[in-house]
Write a structure and sequence with these properties.
Elements: H1 2-16, E1 22-28, H2 40-51, E2 57-62, E3 78-82, H3 94-105, E4 109-113, H4 125-132, E5 146-150, E6 165-169, E7 184-190, H5 210-213, E8 220-227, E9 233-237, H6 249-262, H7 278-281
Parallel strand pairs: 1-2, 1-3, 3-4, 4-9
Antiparallel strand pairs: 5-6, 7-8, 8-9
Length: 295
């Protein structure tokens, strides 16, 4: 009888035990650009402040790019990299790609923000295509400043509660996506001005190329999500050049929703609601006139 009671109590404890917290690691790149642009650390800390209000979620912000102690990724359910990309992307060193690849095989989610969507075609390109569903490829994609308006959204957990909005940003577009957009769902789509595609015949690594010029007048995807065969999830968001963009309630909600989604946290029916004051927006911005390391 005593054994039966003990077993019943054990079963009750197991049934009522709270679920383990989901861990999201936000990797903020080093200082970049002028005041108010590429405020990677301030942006990540702002998002962290909102995520920390979500029950069952814990967050860690890594400053200055790749962490000094990679154990910060232990137990991570999702990673977001918001940093300078290209040849200086913090994730593309061979040993780092290998480490991140190991996490991806475990089903860890991966999100990329703004310049963090760009990696070299032969050094991170295939991996990011698989892990996040798309990336900025030089001589294929472009990175102009323009005002994008978003009026229609797919039915998806990431778009819950998001209302139509428009912002001026450095919206990268004409990303490199998998053939047929396999497993990829576009989230933000808008038609850029033809002038942003560069001069006809020009072939610039970022400012215009024959491939992007072929699609004048066509809509382009500037945010997308992927459900990977390994069970993991990913997303890419090409905006985020201007820190003031995080004051936009809809943009902020989209990214917060996406971070929960890639961590496999149920997104609330109305999305993640988190008000941000003008004073909060100004917190933690980099002093771009100093070269000393940030905290």
């Amino acid at each position: 009888m005593k054994k039966i009671v003990l077993l019943a109590l054990a079963a009750l404890v197991a049934f009522t035990a709270p679920a383990a917290e989901k861990k999201i690691v936000l990797v903020a790149g080093s200082r970049s650009h002028g005041h108010g642009d590429h405020e990677f650390r301030a942006g990540c800390l702002l998002l962290q402040g909102c995520l920390d209000k979500v029950p069952g979620v814990t967050t860690v912000v890594v400053s200055n790019g790749w962490p000094k102690d990679v154990s910060v990724f232990d137990g991570a359910d999702a990673i977001f990299v918001y940093a300078d990309g290209g040849g200086g992307h913090p994730f593309i060193a061979p040993d780092r790609l290998k480490l991140i690849g190991g996490l991806m095989k475990k089903g860890v989610g991966l999100g990329t923000g703004h310049y963090g969507v760009e990696v070299p075609k032969d050094k991170g390109g295939p991996e990011f295509l698989e892990w996040t569903g798309g990336y900025f490829e030089t001589f294929w994609s472009v990175n102009p400043h323009w005002t994008a308006g978003f009026t229609n959204f797919p039915t998806h957990a990431v778009t819950r509660g998001v209302k139509p909005f428009a912002t001026r940003d450095e919206w990268y577009y004409h990303m490199r996506f998998p053939e047929g957009m396999k497993n990829v769902t576009p989230i933000l789509t808008a038609t850029p001005p033809d002038s942003t595609r560069g001069r006809d015949g020009a072939n610039s690594p970022h400012g215009g190329n024959p491939e992007v010029q072929k699609h004048k007048g066509e809509p382009e995807h500037v945010m997308w999500v992927i459900e990977r065969p390994d069970g993991g999830r990913g997303f890419g968001f090409t905006g985020g050049h201007f820190h003031k963009g995080w004051a936009n309630d809809e943009q902020r909600k989209l990214i917060l929703n996406a971070l929960l989604w890639i961590a496999k946290v149920e997104v609330p029916a109305g999305g993640v609601n988190c008000a941000v004051t003008p004073e909060q927006l100004l917190l933690n911005m980099d002093n771009k006139g100093q070269n000393k390391p940030r905290p």
